Amino acid sequence: MENRHYSDRRGYSRRRRQTGSVLSYIILGSILATLLVIAGWLYLHKGTGDTKDASSPDVESDGTPPGEGDGTGGADTESPETDGAQETEGAAEDNSLEGYLARAGRLAAGYDYDAAIELLTASPYADSQEALAAVEEYNAVKSTLVRANPRKITHVFFHTLIMDNSKAFDGDDRQKGYNQVMTTKSEFLKILQSMYDRGFVLVRLHDIAYETTLDDGSVGFREGDIMLPPGKQPFVMSQDDVCYYEYMDGDGFAKRVIVGEDGRPTCEMKMDDGSISVGSYDLIPLLDDFIDEHPDFSYKGARAVIAFTGYNGILGYRTAPSYSSKELYDEAHANTNKKYEDFLAERPDFNYEQERQDAARVAECLKASGYELASHSWGHRNMGNIDMEDFIADTDKWEDQVETLTGPCDIILFPFGSDIGDWHPYDTSSERFQYLHSKGFRYFCNVDSNKYYVQIGADHMRQGRRNLDGYRMYYDLPESGTGNEHLKDLFDVNEVFDRDRPTPVPKMSE
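^ thats the sequence. predicted structure below, dont judge the formating
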């Protein structure tokens, strides 16, 4: 019956072929006309949608947890306004001559002259006067570039940025740690501006040296060729403890990193009235904002290294197994008064698996945006001093609980500025180096106040990092009486230091 019915319908279609084709044209014409009307209406009304207007409060930078803590950030800020310069995800690409020239200009501004030239020479406008002139200009500039010395590249780092000084410096038992190891928002923005004005350009760790197949067929490290205009200075930036521990709740920090409506990473912050505001409330979106305005601050799209512990989750998501059940939560918090019932009461919609999925999505967004992801150990441990059994257990936990969300990571930023060796080149036969190397780590970063500390070995790279926090800045101030000048190549500490800070900033030994 079905076959006969199908044959009958085919015969009916043949008899109606001519009439149907005319009718089809009429219907198609009507549809096209309707679509043109709709498109016209959308064009006239574009950009008139509602946006939330808000400004974030002047705040300070991040904080590395001095121990194992919890963190859901919270701080007061108004609803942020969407950055009009950001392209929305999936926006149509401008394929006009002007569009190609603009994209090439953006690539050239980030020192990727080869990509800019290739874009124009492969475009439909390759023979146009404008494209030829731009290619000529890019080739001329390219001929003047100078290779940076990979062993003279400084590395600066921050913790979670303080977004509301009044909450971070309110006299409670957390104030001391925040004052020592965090940076305020105003300080961070002034540092960016100063370093930009002095010709610093942000590069990736992987730009300095990278693992590759060598000429003899072996796998090893090769120095990178960072080509910049004369006078420009490459540097690396990193941020530790991007986890928004529970203990930070209500102290003037962001709540978590999310993927914004435009497809780019941004932050949520909890307001005084309990509402959640979305905007540039920590290093990641603030850095992106700055690079939007100053594309020549980033070498070929480079961003910061973002490092995580694992015991409290990552990026503000409670992804550690201890959050998956009452039994595990109560066991992990046995030395505190925290109860799983209280945790859930504050988060009635909490879903552990969803937390992991959301964190993984944000991690992918960060990588796609140019950020490099790194380990900060699982439990914020001193990896140079703990027992080898604990060293292995901590590294395995990071691999099992964090790397399953972030994807493979080859960078470790040691907590407490520690290291697995002294200032000499690594003994690569040591048990600790061998274990980290077996887990895929190739970049090892400690904390060092020297301007440059770079060691490139046969199968790894090592770099010292400079802490730009309250402790380091205060003891570079003349008023501290120390006579230190650790930061003078980067910025004028008198102009950057946030006078909201309680002084004197306690020494790390106090």
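Residues 1-90 have pLDDT under 50 and may be disordered.
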